[in-house]
Amino acid sequence: MVQMEDVRTKYGLPSTDEMLARLDAGETLPAPFYYAPEIHRLEQEKIFAKSWQYACHESAVAKPGDYAVTRAGSVPIIVTHGKDGQLRGFVNVCRHRLHAIAEENGNKPLLQCPYHGWTYGLDGQLKTAPRSQREPNFDCSTISLEPVSVERWDQWVFVNPDPAAAPLSTVTAGIRERAAEINTDLREYEFQVRYEYDMECNWKLWAENAVECYHCPTLHNTSFGKTYHTNPDDYAIDSDANTIWHQGPIKWLPSGVDPAGLKGFRFAFTFPSSFFALDDYVGFVGSVQPVSPEKCWAFVDMYAKPGADPVVVKEWLDMWDRTLIEDKRATDIQQIGYNSGRVPAGRLLLDSESPLQSFMRTAVTALSS
């Protein structure tokens, strides 16, 4: 198992206390945090293998036989809706030779591995394996898919690779109350579409981009930055134990839309990877997942306010897609800079980028625990 002390020695990193002090002084994490395979492995073990992460909207697993595939860090996961009405989660890996059980969402009474045909119930229990009757010591009843934790939070399904994880409520406690305070309630919004983005960057670069809006007036000047006020006097950001919150008033509306009573944009990012947002027309819930030290994947489930003008909804969805594509391009380019090995760390503007300090402190502390 990788130890943080070994990583420090190999890459010449300072102690945890020194890194935290440098963060307080306005330095970013050292560059190896964004490309070192050992740190990537530590993050899998200490963060993603033990964290609740958003998986899908409940509509993906609404009926018996439904199943949905996702990831939680390096762990591929399948969520099933059993005949008994129960949602269950499993590692999406056949117990034979570790092929994926399913590669996309679907509905079937049984789960069959497409490689050799091993077939499992929706409860994860192996039912049949071709030619297994020729093996005198083979017993299907002793083999099942590896379980993971799965829970609903309203209409959203969350997973945790740890089958003995503490309840999801230990993470969401306080989030609902704060969300209510700033009118961030997506429960009545209707699912529209899922956007997916493959990034050529470390997952933390994408997450760090998500938790600050210092870049919004420049990078998103024809998308998000055109739609919402993003100057520091109007756009509010703060953080609590594990969540960073954003609020921004609306600046631009399609022709003919009445601005009276509009609440603007609200956003929350919960460490390590889940986020949700709401404005007056659409909302979204999503997750960013590490794939390798220099690659990550994000998916964003988009929702629309019931009764909203479809033309306005489409315009808003397109704006969000453009915004997220702009983020992808920026963080992909950032990765090249980190890989150069010529700049040991970045320099933050503490007044404008304090959310980055909060995120980075949480990441460093988790790896050093």
From TrEMBL:
One of its GO terms (molecular function) is 2 iron, 2 sulfur cluster binding. Residues 53-159 form the Rieske domain. Pfam families: Rieske, Ring_hydroxyl_A. This is Rieske [2Fe-2S] domain protein. SUPFAM superfamilies: Bet v1-like, ISP domain. Its cofactor is Fe cation. Keywords: 2Fe-2S, Iron, Iron-sulfur, Metal-binding, Oxidoreductase. InterPro entries: Rieske_2Fe-2S, Rieske_2Fe-2S_sf, Ring_hydroxy_dOase_asu_C_dom, Rng_hydr_dOase-A. It comes from Prescottella equi ATCC 33707.
